[in-house]
Amino acid sequence: MWSRIISRLLTSLVVAWASVTAAFLALHALPGRIQDILAGDLEYPGLREAIAAEWGLDRSLPAQYLDFLLRILQGDFGTSYVLRQPVTEVVGSQLMPTVQLALLGGLLAIVIAVALALLTAGRGRISRQIASFLELVFASTPVFWLGILLLMAFSFTLRWFPVSGASGWKSIVLPSLTLALPTAGLLAQVLREAMEKTLDQPFVTTVRSRGVGELVIRARHVLRHALLPAVTLGGWLIGGLLGGAVITEKVFGRPGLGTVTLGAVLTHDVPVVLAVVLLAAFIHVAASTVLDILYLLIDPRLRAQ
Amino acid sequence: MTDKPYLVVPQPDDLLIDIEGLSIGFAGANGGAPIVRNFDLTIRRGECVALVGESGSGKSITARSLLNLSGDGAEVDADRFLIRGHDALRFRQSDWRRLRGTMTGLVMQDALVSLDPLRTIGQEVGEVLTEHRTLRGRHAVAARVIDVLRKVGIPDPEHRATQYAHQLSGGLRQRALIASAIAADPDLIIADEPTTSLDVTVQAQVLAVLAERVREGAGLLLISHDLAVVAGIADRVIVMRDGRIVDSGATADVLRRPRHPYTRQLLAAIPSADSKGHLLASARFDVASVEGDGAVGSVIVRERLPVRKSSDEALVLEVEGISKRYVQRRTAGREPSLPALDEVSFAVKAGEVVGIVGESGSGKSTCAKIVLGLLAPDEGEVRLLGQRWSGVAEAERRALRARLQYIPQDALSSFDPRYRVADVIAENLTGDARTKRDRIVALLEQVGLNAGHLGRYPRSLSGGQRQRVSIARALAAEPDIIVCDEPVSALDVSIQAQVLDLLSELQARLGTALLFISHDLGVVQHIADRVLVFHRGRIVESGPVDQVFSNPADDYTRALLSSIPAIESAFVRSSANAAIAGLSTARSV
Amino acid sequence: MNVQTRPLADLSIALDPQVNPPGAVEPVTTAAVIAPRLLSPGLAISLAFLFVLLLTAAFPRAFTQFDPLIGDYALGLKPPSWEHLFGTDRLGRDVFARTIHGTRYSLLIGLGGMAISLAFGIVLGILAGQRNRFLDEGTSRVFDVLSSFPGVLLAMLVVTFLGQGMLNIAIAVGIAGIPKFGRVIRAQTQLVRDADYVTHAVVYGLGRWQIFFRHVLPNVLVAVPVIATVYIGNTILAVSGLSFLGLGPQPPTPEWGVMLAESRDVLRVAWWPGVFPGLAITLTVIAFTLVGNAIQKRFEGRLA
């Protein structure tokens, strides 16, 4: 089992390194000079030369690559020439609200999905149909539209929650719900289908023959089996949450990484976008690694060998 | 069950189950008609009742109705449905739950999927105890779990309790499943095909564990498709077909003097030494006076196989000293693995049927793969029709491929899912479309199908029909030898009889040699001329079937033969004395 | 919806030799197999909806007389009426006309992105599904790297490099979808590769390439329409999100995501511009998902 965990960790390192390399290669594969790309829409005398000096563009490609790798390893993502600030500062100051939103949204999604699956899997036809209909609707609704609908209902009409901003707990209720519902729909679908498949397994009959009640069967035996496909989906969901957070921030006008990134994309502030994307990739890789190791802990059959 | 609200009739203490006129139906299934009708059953303490029938007979849902586990939407009704004197028709869900595990324990087939694979054996066995609060405290439960595991014959129970189902061998796993069913000491054990998919030697051990429980006073309802399995252990037998009881009575009576034609047909369809050279499905019981004492008994009358095409005794397949060792991944701390095949040599002559018997892991499948040219041996050589077959490039083999064909166990998975029956067979034919079609129709008719099956998808066919298509595909190439890998293992006994008849009839008529691999000794005894006994990758004994089976020289062969469920020795053989008398006058048609 | 009937273990009556004796001819047509499933109301409605959707994408002018781009400023923000079914937006443009004209953008960008994902996904997935460990590891790491960038952010990076526009977000969504398709195709390839009918095909005298082209490839490719239908909804969702962020087509293009972004400013006074385009997206995605699921069920057991 330990050898599996170590090999999984090594794979993650390779993937993280490969994503940095991919970013570097993409930068150089683009038509045009690097200094033009990095400068974005900006134009003032001496800027190109300053960029060339900072990135060491006069050196050979391998030397530039090594330098790029080393700098990222030290947490230095360069300078945003548009904002005239180190990228790390720009991103660092906006990281927390986004992470907060993504975490809260993810947690909410898991709670909703597990509750929905536990209560409806393999139950009467009507409740299952209602549940699967809800899941389908939520999973098919664009995050931003859901945000707009919630805004209309709870902010403009009922005036329960503020329209925008990031002050106080009230301002995070609607955004996190917006982010959670589509994810919950998808997750509940996967969980419920897996639970129903598991409920058809012979061992469930064995458990029933011991006199165990239905809810206990679900919580003690079936849910654990259903978690396996859900965990596999987990990495993808984390990526979805991060991306969804960006969109949600725009809907609710919340400060955060999304607002920064969007601004950077529109002003072609390449260093900032690159940093955000790489950061998201690192978070994603780290989270999937944890999930994969969790998978090993859930399923003893994989621990062997 | 301490409360008495449902107590209807005070009954003798040892009567566990008393059912009359049971019917089980599913709304919307079977056109609204019940699946099981008019079913009667009584089980007493210390008694084993066997429920026998082929797939679709309704035996499983009937047995599970004793636990109210017949399935979603099952509608159960009965004239009388008493469980220890309580009217089960008036039970609420909570009553059923209280009864499950404590009054009745369920043992199912294949513990690998019947025990929760994500929980340890100890957790699984202990669950019934904690659920019913039979015992309080972690330690008391753990001690009881170890106790029960020991009782079912699991060595080193302390260690095994911490392991998972997949870490145990098939036999130990099945014992653990039994342990989980009997942990709370139920009065009644329901065992649903508890030994199917186990090797015969292991099967014998598992049956012994169950028999021990009966001796200790538990009631046992044993469900099986196999008359032989129940013969040695059951006091009474109930034969089911299409949801009805067709025959029932004391085991000896039912097996020796079957009253119902279906029971007779079932018994006669079991392949054995006595059926050799005859067609199985043609068999029927005739009531005839046995010569000598004038007593009236049943006689099995079977039609003879057509006379075999004479062959020239040329060697078709020669296997010389092949060995195969699978490269194991680092398994630290475990004993080094045995070779899958170790110095195996044999030969198959033209028109000969050679049987290979062995339990799982004996190397018989590896041997089949090497003979088929799907796997290269580490050492040794295979020759087909005198030419080198192993150790050459696949391109070189291709010219000879048509000479050696294959009938797998699972026919369906050997067909491309996009292919219809005609495409499956056409793949093994050459020539233009017109002649191909005629050939395919001819082949289908040869295996008992017809042109109407050409456009069908194999998945819409029955198991027996699929195996017929598989045989037609093999015959299409007009081979000299066919490797049959457990071709009838997945089939019900009456379908098995039909497929075996078809194989042996075609074999006799066409003079094709067969290398017939099976775990079922009866099948091999019935069809093969010579037999090779595989054990741990070696051939431990070989020779003419009759000689090996009646006079085994090797210890393992002897152990294997003695583990075969006792129907031959107990009943058919004794009735076979009569049957043999019948056989000598068997009408050869 | 998801109505499943559970199989009953001991009910294999159809396979009973008495009911279905080995000689009996009983023609089974494909129509007979599909027909009962087509009757499911959810599926029927979905298919009809998608059919109408295709018509609106092809002939939007047949459905509305109003121009999607030019409105009467004086008629701005009128609530839904018989004249303007979905009301009018801030510039007095008919929301119904804009929603109808928007179909073609959403479908085109979605399908374009899908085509990119599929093309790369199929080739890489089949390569990864081969027995060659080097190929598998190499290709799988490519999938890992691509999927390590969250889709929306990867698309943002692509747009930063290539600029805004419909083609560019199609490319962005397409690239982000490659690992998803690639992994499914890889699993399907492995499933087919290890199936008995492939491993045993050599017994019937077929060569390696014959086996690949006759058995492996077709059985991998049967999965493609299924996966595509299941995922097209996702692609449309992703595209609308990027348009909403202003990375795709620019106003005044009547694209659904763009329309919703515009509606954000008038939400306080008018609900209709913010409801109908979103409804169009959601219904489209639901319809594709339901049809995809139905197709998937038909292929049950043959897909990974």
UniProtKB/TrEMBL annotation, chain A:
Every ABC transmembrane type-1 domain range: 95-295
Chain segments annotated as transmembrane: 101-121, 133-160, 172-191, 226-247, 272-298
Localisation: Cell membrane
InterPro entries attached to this UniProt entry: MetI-like, MetI-like_sf
Keywords: Cell membrane, Membrane, Transmembrane, Transmembrane helix, Transport
UniProt main location, coarse: membrane
SUPFAM superfamilies registered for this protein in UniProt: MetI-like (SSF161098)
GO annotation, cellular component aspect: plasma membrane
A single GO molecular function term of this UniProt record: dipeptide transmembrane transporter activity
Family designation: Belongs to the binding-protein-dependent transport system permease family.
Name assigned to this protein: ABC transporter permease
TrEMBL record, chain B:
GO molecular function list: ATP binding; ATP hydrolysis activity
Entry keyword set: ATP-binding, Nucleotide-binding, Transport
Location within or outside the cell: Cell inner membrane
One Pfam entry name: oligo_HPY
UniProt xrefs under SUPFAM superfamilies: P-loop containing nucleoside triphosphate hydrolases
All residue ranges annotated as the ABC transporter domain in the record: 19-267, 317-561
Nucleotide-binding is among the record's keywords: yes
Function field: Involved in beta-(1-->2)glucan export. Transmembrane domains (TMD) form a pore in the inner membrane and the ATP-binding domain (NBD) is responsible for energy generation.
Name of protein: ABC transporter ATP-binding protein
Organism field: Tardiphaga robiniae
